[in-house]
Amino acid sequence: MDDKQITLIQESFAKVVPIKDAAAEIFYADLFETAPAVKPYFANADMKDQGSKLMATLAVVVNGLRDLDKIVPVAQQLAVKHVDYGVKAQDYDSVGASLLRTLEKGLGDDFTPEVKEAWTVAYTTLAGVMKGAAYPEPELATAGAAPGKKPFWKFWA
Fold first, then answer.
1. 94 near 31, Cβ under 8 Å?
2. What is the average per-residue pLDDT within 71-90?
3. CATH number of the domain that residue 135 is part of
4. Structural domain span for residue 59
């Protein structure tokens, strides 16, 4: 994720903020339609409150993209917490796809191929970090990092 991609993400998210409640509704409607297996995770949730949490979390991540050392530990803790709700590793793919479709609907013509690519890179990177924290496997824990090397998600440092 380069500086230009971070700027694209932050600028596009700024356009979503004024419609954040609608965006959250679109996101969850899309997620439940395309990945109905995740709906039970939210059986006892107040979806308006859940939507607010989603948008607040996205805001923290988007605003922290230039300082990933601060947001990565928070994302890892969030991922581990979500295991208790029954979230599976493959659910991250469904969430990512719904996020992109939500952004496409919410941003319209402003959802350019470059914006889509930036969001895809950011989400894929963060989801990888989160899945690594939530579902550690010995062979995956060290994948991409030779002894003394940085883990893959530290590519920006």
1. yes
2. 90
3. 1.10.490.10
4. 3-154
